[in-house]
């Protein structure tokens, strides 16, 4: 396969992806695009146009097939890197990649206007491609230690192929006529093949990694509350199960606090659900500030939450509950022009050796209901003495 055929393959491959993404976007028009997907789509469109122009070199004016085509190609590389960083949770386009793109286009266009040798222009293009590929690898390399095998493979393959592309550019500048053991055609072929593999490795890698992240997020949402980002009922029960088992052995007890925000229904009725959501998130943050790193807070539903306190007796748990109650009452929540004062009722118990999750929560709920009957905004401890 000659160089021109590879360039055509790059153009057609990117055009095919653009078409597929167009129909995918029409089908998923009501769903929000994942992080970085918009930048990734733009990258595919730019690279499709650029490779198409490079393939038509000789049939179109040089201005279109050399400086303009490379400017579009560099923009495609930059948007590729931006998509990877957005997927990693950071937006670096305006601050870093846009200035780097401007410099890259300026250097290449200046080299063309000054009629510098083709080898020098190829060297600049290879270094630009290498820079943006390294930027993509940097985004991929974030969290290397906890990264999946797919992420690590993409980092290593990107770095390896980038090295070949950069070496191709360096050799084009230093050895424009090749050497006895290295012909210019071989250097050019190695560089374009590496760029081909880098481009389509980037394409399929992005799709696979996006899918992997989506599956990971779906798995997380099975055990987490999307509003407050604490465990949901299922997640809390899963975390509590080992501590219920440990309660059958001698050792320090584990306490459970059942908390409900008082008259929370009126917040949604008077101010609307968006304000209610804001109040919930704020109050959860207030509660978490009163807890240790080893403690766990979970949402049982509505305005009811449970708090697990490992290695904590009932007396200490009551002190923690009282501290939480005071912190909630002392912090009015600002929601637009409204200032909302909240209180909470709390029931406290500890895990008994004979407890199951049902009996444990029943006892904590009875204490909570007693707190509400006695006027709300108070802490009530349940009797945790084992039944004889």
Automatic annotation (TrEMBL):
InterPro entries: Diguanylate_Cyclase (IPR050469), GGDEF_dom (IPR000160), Nucleotide_cyclase (IPR029787), Rev_trsase/Diguanyl_cyclase (IPR043128)
Catalytically driven reaction(s): 2 GTP = 3',3'-c-di-GMP + 2 diphosphate
GO cellular component: plasma membrane
Gene3D superfamilies: 3.30.70.270
Keyword annotations: Membrane, Transmembrane, Transmembrane helix
Enzyme Commission number, as recorded: 2.7.7.65
Highest taxon of the lineage: Bacteria
Domain GGDEF positions: 252-384
Pfam families reported in the protein's UniProt record: GGDEF
Keyword Transmembrane: yes
GO process annotations (BP): cell adhesion involved in single-species biofilm formation; negative regulation of bacterial-type flagellum-dependent cell motility
Entry GO MF terms: diguanylate cyclase activity
Record-annotated membrane-spanning stretches: 63-84, 96-116, 122-141, 153-175, 187-209
SMART domains: GGDEF
Name by which UniProt lists this protein: diguanylate cyclase
Native species: Duganella fentianensis
Phylogenetic placement of the source organism: Bacteria, Pseudomonadati, Pseudomonadota, Betaproteobacteria, Burkholderiales
């Amino acid at each position: 396969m000659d160089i021109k055929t590879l360039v055509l393959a790059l153009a057609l491959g990117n055009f095919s992806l653009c078409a597929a993404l167009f129909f995918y976007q029409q089908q998923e028009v009501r769903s929000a695009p994942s992080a970085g997907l918009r930048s990734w789509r733009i990258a595919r469109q730019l690279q499709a146009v650029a490779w198409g122009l490079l393939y038509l070199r000789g049939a179109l004016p040089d201005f279109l097939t050399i400086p303009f085509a490379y400017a579009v190609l560099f923009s495609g590389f930059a948007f590729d890197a931006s998509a990877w960083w957005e997927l990693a949770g950071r937006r670096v386009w305006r601050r870093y990649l846009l200035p780097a793109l401007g410099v890259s286009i300026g250097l290449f266009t200046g080299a063309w206007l000054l009629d510098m040798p083709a080898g020098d222009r190829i060297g600049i293009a290879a270094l630009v491609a290498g820079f943006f590929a390294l930027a993509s690898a940097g985004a991929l390399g974030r969290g290397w230690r906890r990264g999946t095998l797919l992420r690590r493979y993409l980092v290593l393959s990107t770095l390896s192929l980038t090295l070949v592309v950069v070496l191709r550019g360096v050799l084009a500048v230093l050895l424009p006529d090749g050497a006895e053991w290295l012909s210019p055609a071989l250097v050019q072929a190695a560089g374009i093949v590496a760029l081909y593999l880098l481009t389509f490795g980037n394409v399929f890698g992005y799709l696979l990694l996006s899918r992997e992240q989506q599956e990971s997020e779906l798995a997380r949402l099975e055990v987490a509350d999307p509003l407050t980002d604490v465990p949901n009922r299922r997640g809390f029960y899963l975390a509590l199960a080992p501590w219920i088992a440990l309660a059958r052995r001698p050792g320090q007890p584990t306490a459970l606090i059942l908390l409900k925000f008082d008259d929370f229904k009126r917040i949604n009725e008077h101010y609307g659900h968006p304000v209610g959501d804001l109040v919930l998130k704020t109050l959860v943050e207030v509660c978490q500030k009163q807890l240790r790193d080893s403690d766990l807070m979970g949402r049982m539903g509505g305005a009811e939450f449970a708090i697990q306190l490992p290695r904590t007796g009932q007396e200490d748990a009551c002190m923690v509950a009282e501290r939480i109650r005071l912190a909630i009452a002392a912090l009015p929540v600002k929601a637009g022009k409204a200032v909302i004062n909240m209180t909470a009722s709390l029931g406290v118990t500890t895990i008994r050796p004979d407890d199951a999750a049902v009996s444990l929560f029943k006892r904590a709920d009875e204490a909570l209901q007693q707190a509400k009957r006695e006027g709300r905004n108070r802490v009530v401890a349940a009797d945790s003495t084992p039944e004889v």
